[in-house]
Amino acid sequence: MRTVVITGGTRGIGGALAARLRRRGDRVVALGSADADLSSPRQTVELAERLPGRIDVLVLAAGRFDQRRVVTADGLEQSFAISVLSRHLLVERLVPRMRGGTVLSLCGVGGLPFGRLNWDDLQLERRYSLTRATMQGARALDLLGAGFADRHPDRDVRYVLWNPLLVDSGMHRYLRQPWRTVVGRTAALLGEKPGAAAERLERLLDRPLPAGLTAFRRGRPVPVDGPGFDPGSARRLAERLDRAGAEHWG
Q1: Which key words are in the record (predicted)?
Q2: Would you state the pLDDT for residue 161?
């Protein structure tokens, strides 16, 4: 029986995956906002300390997006704190408990040539927009995957980036009108249902993937040797996130 931890595991793709894995007999720890505020580095670190001593699969599916720039109580831009910083902190604290197994992160850009990291403004204080925040976060997630083996050279752990593309997961609820209705209807009409996306992920977790980084865009492999996966940029980002986390958890 595997022990599976899923952030964002109470709804959407994460919730559907949690239900599927429980039915097959896995021990699933599905985490939602009631368990910890992942925009808070302190709460994220405290959450990691409460999680099981052995973890076989860590699924990182939590995210939050807003059309307006939202600043947390720690002075962090909310979407970056939840989607990027919390994932970095959890991986750095939980991977030492893993002997083999898989880290599955939803979702990096996965090879799409859009977006960039604003190194001089990671919190997007000057030019925030929902699109810019979303794409910057996705680029950052690619780099977290790219730097994983460098940070954990002795861990035989698979790190998988998965971009599900359009899924009818309810993320439109964070938008204001009229975009909430437009995006919601588009996702309902054209998007993959969470259950179908979760089925893909369940099959992926059963595959004999190599240790280190692999990336997929809705099931199709994506090369991880392009400029979006630059090792130097990955180290630079990890150092920035280490400093940001330490500043806010003491």
Answers
A1: Oxidoreductase
A2: 95
Angle (CA) 170 79 178, round 5°: 45
pLDDT of residue 84: 96
Specify the DSSP class assigned to residue 39: T
| Mean pLDDT of all residues belonging to the chain | 89
Q: Which CATH class for the 3-249 domain?
A: alpha beta
Instruction: Give domain limits for the chain.
Output: 3-249
* Separation of alpha carbons 12 and 218, rounded Å: 16
Query: Which of 126, 29, 112, 35 minimizes the C-alpha distance to 77?
Result: 126
CA separation, residue 135 to residues 63, 111, 117, 184 (Å): 13, 12, 8, 20
Helices 86-94 and 231-249 meet at what angle, rounded to 10? 90
* Residue 227 CB neighbour total at 10 angstroms: 7
DSSP assignment string, 162-218: EE--SB-SSGGGGSPTTHHHHHHHHHHHHSBPHHHHHHHHHHHHHS-PPSEEEEEET
Amino acid of residue 56: D
d(CA 210, CA 173): 37
pLDDT score of 170 more than 80: no
200-221 average pLDDT score:
90
Query: Please, is 88 exposed, middle or buried when counting C-beta atoms within 10 Å of its C-beta (0-12, 13-18, 19+)?
Result: buried
Pairing of strands 220-222, 57-60: unpaired
**What one-character DSSP code corresponds to residue 115?**
-
Residues 247, 196: Cα–Cα separation, whole Å? 40
Full DSSP string of 220-237: EEE-S-SGGG-HHHHHHH
